[in-house]
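ok posting inputs for the nicotinamide-adenine-dinucleotide job
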Amino acid sequence: MKENVTSRRDFLTTAGKAAAVTTAYTMLNPIKSFSQQQKKIKVAIVGTGSRGSGMWGKELLAEQGDKVELVGLCDINPLRVEFCKKYLDTNVPTYTDFEKMVKETKPDRIIVTTVDATHHQYIIRGMELGCDIVTEKPMTTDEEKCKAILETEKKTGKKVTVTFNYRYSPHRQTMKEILMSGEIGEIVSVDFHWYLDIIHGADYFRRWHRLREKSGSLWVHKASHHFDLVNWWLEAEPTEISAFGKLNKYGKNGPFRSKTCRGCPYKDKCDFYWDITNNPHYTKLYVECEKADGYTRDGCVFREDVNIWDTMTANVKYTNDVVMSYSVNAFTPYEGYRIAFNCSKGRLEHWNHERQPWVVPAQDDIRLTKNFGTTEIITVKAAEGGHGGGDTRLRDMVFTPGMPDPYKQAADSRAGAMAILPGIAARYSIDENRTVKISELINI
Ligand SMILES: NC(=O)c1ccc[n+]([C@@H]2O[C@H](COP(=O)([O-])OP(=O)(O)OC[C@H]3O[C@@H](n4cnc5c(N)ncnc54)[C@H](O)[C@@H]3O)[C@@H](O)[C@H]2O)c1
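and the output
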């Protein structure tokens, strides 16, 4: 078939199926008419590391300060919580005792940005103490904690929001818009492959993420983003998964090892050597807080205790009979992903190169090909801000009352559960060498 590549900036207007992408973005801009009379939402943060102090601290207050009042900060590391207070230039009280913080500061909402495997403690206790919860992904790391969260939500009548920022990036929203338009028919299967490079991918192996008991492994910590995107794009839920995984590069595979990059005798020959002290913010946030808990942000990627996989593949089946072939690799030369939706009337593809050592034109466009038809290129303008503009738009969605949600981007606890369950099932699938049904883990 001859390829006819055309610009599709006018895609949806021409198709007449939905508002144009730019119009959609205007629709989703923050509602500026938020009443000054309206009471601010009282917010407390637990977990004042990178995400808590940045995305949900400084950036939230800068953007949503007219709607949000920060009332308390909590972290198990007393030095980090004090640093966060300074960094945010605030007078709010700081705590290492969560219960005390909630009782004294009486927040309406608690933002949970602790280590993944500890989220459930704060989500559950926070709701029991009368607060709604805004939690970072993954909602939690295993099925028992997941059940406990869902039960507490039901019992207390409080609400859990899970902050899936990936849904909000302009490219992913455009793909959602195209799929919703029905132009290429029903989705039949999905090819989805995610590449974590030797910079970002390696970084997971320096931090607490390298331990399955803290992150649930990358099947949960990282893949929950991807599984959530697919659930959202397909408007379906996963039913079964068959997975493989191996640790090929990091951990025991290394030719040498140390505890941290600082002081490493192999620093001159290690490709992964990284000097955290070149980053003044990280030095304050992590290095200067080490004496309180011993946590080192620049751990050696070859430490023997790495117990997660760096090479993962799976087949996943969904409630609407769609099947997905999925993989994540954590030591690729470039960062990005490839996704394709094979549909009854055509194929929708996106090849994203977020970071790469060379420059290839048109690597971030969306391709829409109709069966017996032509290929069209859809160029989507990247938005400013973290995660392709997703972080900003997510904050708007979470804290702006009455925010329109035409693409169903807001995510509740069920979405939070459905994003982690395939990864939890993948772990069982690898450990037990069999296909695992989601219904074996939880019945919701
Ligand atoms: N949506 C995204 O794109 C995105 C990006 C980065 C991180 N995250 C999520 O944000 C959360 C925080 O990640 P981060 O990168 O800020 O990590 P981090 O290591 O910088 O911060 C984690 C903080 O939690 C604290 N902590 C650990 N255990 C605790 C406990 N039991 N009680 C209270 N505090 C505890 C640590 O002292 C630290 O300050 C994680 O759940 C992570 O998955 C999401």
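notes: Confidence is low (pLDDT under 50) at residues 1-33. The pocket of nicotinamide-adenine-dinucleotide is lined by residues 46-52, 75-77, 80, 113-116, 118, 136-137, 165, 221, 387 (CB under 6 Å).
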